Amino acid sequence: YDAFVSFAWDDREAVRTVSESLEGEHGFSCCLHDRDFHPAQPFLDQMGRSMDASRRVLCFLSPDFVKSKYCVWEFKHSFEEDDLRGTRRLVAILLEPVNDTDFDKTNEVVRKYISKFTYLD
């Protein structure tokens, strides 16, 4: 895949619009868990393999994203892999503003990232 797309379930319609544009208008291939994962295979295994095999990881940040343990895991995994590989595959896209009150110790990595690095708004 050109991009693994990480998003909260409640943001799926907005994210689907972007992924359809990337695929239809720009020729990119995107991996979306609700469309591309196989039901008979372990979800977490597919998530890790798909992320590792993708050229970029697009994380669509929102209050729902930072509340999702799966989304935070995807973000953290991608961020840590970038650090290990010396690459910058993670692309953070602010879909909706995230307030300081949305953060806690389980999603602190997201807050630190958006305070240090450039993200798309």
Could you describe the 3D structure shown?
By secondary structure, the protein is α/β, with parallel strands linked by helices. It has one domain (3-115): Rossmann fold. It contains 6 helices and 4 strands; from the N terminus they run E-H-E-H-H-E-H-H-E-H. The protein has helices at 12-24, 33-36, 43-52, 63-67, 69-85, 108-116; strands at 3-6, 30-32, 56-61, 90-94. Strands 2-1-3-4 form a 4-stranded parallel β-sheet, sandwiched between helices. The longest helix has 17 residues, at 69-85. The chain is globular and about 35 Å long. The mean pLDDT is 90. It holds the Pfam family TIR_2. Residues 1-121 form the TIR domain. It comes from Capitella teleta (Polychaete worm). One of its GO terms (molecular function) is signaling receptor activity.
Structural class of the secondary structure composition? alpha/beta
Number of helices: 6
What's the Cα radius of gyration?
14 Å
Strand order of the largest sheet: 2-1-3-4
How many strands appear in the DSSP assignment? 4
Largest sheet: 4 strands, parallel
Multimer state: single chain
How far apart the termini lie comes to 23 Å
CATH class: Alpha Beta
The CATH topology, please?
Answer: Rossmann fold
Second rung of CATH, namely the architecture: 3-Layer(aba) Sandwich
The geometry reads as globular
Number of domains: 1
Which segments are poorly predicted (pLDDT under 50) over 5 or more consecutive residues? none
Subcellular location: Membrane
Main location: membrane
Keywords: Membrane, Signal, Transmembrane, Transmembrane helix
Protein name: TIR domain-containing protein
